[in-house]
Give the backbone structure.
Amino acid sequence: MLTLSEYEEGLRSGKLLGLRCASCGGVTCHPMPVCQWCGGRSLERTKLSGAGELTTFTVIRVPSEGFEGEVPYIPCLVKTEEGPCVVGRLDYDAERATQAAQELLGKRVRMSGAYTYKGDKFSGGAHSCPVFEVTE
Ligand SMILES: [Zn+2]
């Protein structure tokens, strides 16, 4: 069992937590009530390494409502070593990321911390996401 608030608490203390499935051995992250690979319900909390591969990203320059002070920032999708893909932010210069987009895809990354955004009328309050840095 791993609630969303426990997951986010883990992020803020530098840990990427997920769930390991007793049926197929797969890791689910972020937390869900069933295994993302086989639908199994017997899940145990596990700690992921935080390392993975940068699958895709985008540079946000025009803020959505509630994010006016945040641009530019870089949401990214990371395929973790353990299998699941995790959404986070990439800690990288926005201009360099724009110019070197194709070179950055597939690079090794590691979780370097957490980012907490204050929330807007759609999010039901503040939430945290992992922050990744390029390690190669
Ligand atoms: Zn499973």
Notes: The longest strand covers residues 108-117. The two ends are 34 Å apart (CA to CA). The chain is about 15% helix and 40% strand. The chain has a mean pLDDT of 95.
